[in-house]
Amino acid sequence: MDAMGATRTDGRRWGARLAGVVAAAALICTGQALSGHAAQAAECPAPIRTVLDTTPATAARTVALTFDDGPWPENTPDVLDVLRSSGVQATFFVRGDQAAAHPDLVRRIVAEGHAIGNHTWSHPYLSQIAPAARIAEIERTTQTIVNAAGTEPCFFRGPFGDHDDPAIAGLAWDRGMTVVDWSLDTRDWSTPASWSPSFQQQIIERATSPRSAHPIVLMHDGGGYRQNTVAALDDVISYYASRGYTFTDPAGRAFSSGSGQGGTYVVQPGDTLGSIAAGYSATWQEIYQANRATIGPDPNMLQVGQRLTIPGAGGGGGGGGTPTPPAGGTTTYVVQPGDTLGSIASGYSATWQEIYQANRATIGPDPNLLQVGQQLTIPAG
């Protein structure tokens, strides 16, 4: 489903484009070793001349998160904040008229390491307008992106998924862009215009099911109220990160692990503290010390999906990492994967027994049974 309230039939094409994807994977992998922390190429790859429903299999499991119809001031900054706090990049298919109105957001998208795509100027059904008008919709948008951020879009997605016709897809290919469809449609375009936890759960379920090794997930940061998408995004990211997926662009290229700033990083397959540190202005020892409570005594024992606090400017994503001792009174700590009461207590002037007694009603009779995401009260020492 694409945005602006127009539905696509449930019986839309699901036919596999396996030959094209396999060929694309071979093209992209030539001479390039990809991992969860590999740097993304600065320039666009040669366009893959098939419409991608899934990412090429450049790693055992890959996922491309994509957002349509922005940039939108009411939503896009919040989406970017969630992605930044998670250490994950995505692909933004921007409308030309929105990019022209909000070039600062286009610049932020690019500056934070995300891929950018062309989603036409005014969001028309391309099959219903004249060939010359199609060209104008595409070229005007590309020029606006270049004017705003100094980079050309590597990808193209037609509004409403109207891009399968070679007469349309060929316009993008001839202009150096790969045409991107999707395999998982969150249908977040149908959101109620207000906060809805039940709809947020629907977004999460649609973004993660049916399970695929190389999905392209369709979400929206523009077109109206998208705060339910923002609220669901962290759980979508956690689902894929905890299962060892590498976050890539639609062409299967892994994003850079960091921007040189502090923040939060989600551990990817093959990561070491040294490889993570290479993307930031911090040593592996500094990262280890900032996360010792959750990593444990062995700095080599990283868990895929684990969130690490990166010391430096920018702060973290809230909750977890090395606890900051409170100035007085009590504070709250959010349980992270691998936490124990002992490891949590090591960051505070309180014993694990004191933390357990302060939270016994929620932990239960066994102090070893902590739940990820559980909020613990930390008593003052």
Question: What does the secondary structure layout of this molecule look like, with pairings?
Answer:
Blueprint: H1 18-29, E1 62-68, H2 76-86, E2 91-94, H3 96-101, H4 103-111, E3 115-118, H5 131-149, E4 155-156, H6 166-173, E5 178-179, E6 184-185, H7 197-208, E7 216-220, H8 227-242, E8 246-247, E9 263-266, H9 273-277, H10 284-295, E10 307-310, E11 331-334, H11 341-345, H12 352-363, E12 375-378
Parallel strand pairs: 1-2, 1-7, 1-8, 2-3, 3-4, 4-5, 6-7
Antiparallel strand pairs: 9-10, 11-12
Helix pairs in contact: 2-8, 4-5, 5-6, 7-8
Walk me through this protein's architecture.
By secondary structure, the protein is of the alpha/beta class. The chain folds into three domains: 18-247, Alpha-Beta Barrel (TIM Barrel); 263-310, Membrane-bound Lytic Murein Transglycosylase D, Chain A; 331-378, Membrane-bound Lytic Murein Transglycosylase D, Chain A, CATH 3.10.350.10. It is 33% helix and 12% strand. Helix 4 (103-111) crosses helix 5 and helix 7 (197-208) packs across helix 8. Residues 1-42 and 313-328 have low confidence and may be disordered.
Task: Kindly list the characteristics that best describe this protein.
single chain, 381 residues, alpha/beta, TIM Barrel, Membrane-bound Lytic Murein Transglycosylase D, Chain A, eight-stranded parallel β-sheet
Look at the structure and give the mean pLDDT.
80
Low-confidence stretches: 1-42, 313-328
Judging by the overall fold, what is the CATH architecture of the largest domain? Alpha-Beta Barrel
Helix content: 25-40%
Biggest sheet features? 8 strands, parallel
